[in-house]
Amino acid sequence: MSAWLERVANVDRETFLSLAFQQELWENESISATGQGHIDVTRVLADPRIAVELWDLKQSELPDDPKARREALDAAWESIVVRVRPLTKRWPRLKMYRVFASLWPAYFTTIAHYHKLRRLARAMGVERGVEHRTELHQRVLSRLDEVGMKFRSQEERMTLPWLLYIHYVNDESGDATEIVGDRPGETRLNPLPANRRRRGMTGIGGGLASVLGMLEFAKEGCKREDFIAHLHAQNPTHTRATLNTNLNCLMAEWGAVRAEGDELRLTDRGVALLETGDPEEVSDWMLTRILGFDNLLVMLRDGEKPLTQVIDELQRVNPGWTTNFAPTVLINWTRYLGLVEPAPGRHIKLTESGEEWAARILWTPEMLAPVPTLALAKTAPVVAGGGSLLSSLPSVEAIMSKFPKGIAFSRELVGRLHAGLWLNQRRHFAVLTGLSGAGKTQLARCYAEGLRDNDGAAGAFQIIPVQPGWHDPSSLLGYINPIQNDVYVRTAFLDFLLQAHGDPDRAYTVVLDEMNLSHPEQYLAPLLSAMETGDPIELHAQGDEVGGVPDCIPYPENLLLIGTVNMDETTHGLSDKVLDRASVIEFWDIDVDLYPGWESNHLDDDIAKKTRDLLRDLVQHLRPVRLHFGWRTIGDVIGYIEAAVNSGVFGANDALDHAVYSKVLPKLRGEDSKRLREAFDAVTKTLQDYALHHSAGKAVELRDDLHQLGSARFWR
What we know:
716 residues; alpha/beta; Arc Repressor Mutant, subunit A; Rossmann fold; 4 domains; five-stranded parallel β-sheet; three-stranded antiparallel β-sheet; 19 strands
């Protein structure tokens, strides 16, 4: 970058105006990459008036006054825009930033993408009200100067904002649509697997113009009901369901709107789309989040194809698209967005913009696995021993070797789960019960991902939080909309089930978390029956497929069901119908010393040892009456002490006292018995020995209640 800027600063007029130098000025990526797309600026390079004007601007003196300087740069920018825009199909904004940064490096950063720069500016506390794009660069640089940043070169000053963006502002989660590099402007798309993508797009009358109109209403934020009312005023014949669908499209298919409770706000992507009207602003979302979008562009990347052939190939992307409706809507959207255009002979081909989008697809687009839609013959129950998946299972040691560091489940425990899940070729069902916070769900997740090794482990596991009031299978398997009989209301469990059935050579694990908050024999009835008899799972009685959902599927022999159970006054017992089909594994024995957080906490050695010894003693006293606690409570106690000590309000011993009072004692309860008395006496003495006066006082109350009233509980 330094060499390039020095070259631009010292170039003579004749060289500057030459076609070779102009091409380098517009295409050089020393300052910033423009991403994987490319806008052709050949006609811009061929216009000598633009080169002359850029030379004159370069040679002109900028005012010393900041306000006057901002106005001069704004005017220069707008003057070049007027000349450039008629010469290109799309406005080459990123390349123009690079040109201006090359001419005036003191007043531009290396962040060529304006909306990335705006997100950085917001995070840096740059006040709102910046009207022009060039001004924001100057405000960001001024903010660095205000806090006393010292730079060894102007290149370092230009580049620091990009480093701040990628390390402190950019979304680095696994679900981010882009992955950025240290080199300014360097990005690559991060596609979701097919089974996590939105199934195509929804047709919206008016195309992109309608989308922009909806975003305009929400640009300052609005209530959900106000937004729906606005859509109804614009489309009075539309039902509320249709209006809600349009809103959901803006969130899930465009990534342009987000919900914060009852409030709707534009995402940064939505703001950019509204301001520019350029579909490029949503390209990252469309290409990585919409099923079939990347498939379509890759199909056409090598040349035009007959429309009917494209539709047929798109239908294979999602077996649920049994008609040409969804593929046709997807193709229409690519036409509305200027990516695809008709060709002679009822063919379609990519436009220049479509070729730019297609060039960013560096992966092989995926397809959903096929789902049989015909009624299937019933099969007899089978026993373990002959299945291809069963015969190729990794060993327990191999599974455990994939567990994250710090996970301390014993080999025996993992072996019990493994044996319980695979004792039958078809019925892989386990129930994990016992101590709350002992790691039941974590064990299930680690086992599921270890079972799949690195072969697509991200899609191996699905957690379903069971809710009270699940009285029938529709909560898991979905149902046909009673008002619209051609609409099937799907669930995450159903999609996972269909995916498992379509991919029989790999294991799929579902965790039914808190499965006894409702009666499992009610909401699991079709699966409990099918896993035992081998009959198909009946999904609906329409005969034909509805909304991509067949009437039945065979029970997937690669589906693992793991339920977690806590027994208290809010839950139900498990019936024999469930227990006969499940392997039950209890979580009661907790080794305090094996808790991985002991190695990573920030407690002083003395209080850490005291905390560990105390918790070990309390677990030992409470284990006989099953009132002891798990790793979640241990972690909370450690976290409480760290937070309390850091606050400066409590000393370490007082923090430990309050942590035990808050996290351990509230669960102590029971009816009078010799064993419970002994436990309460031991707990009381231990708390007194450790000089935890607050907790010891409460323990004395509980002990006295037990002796005098015949029962005791923290809450009274």
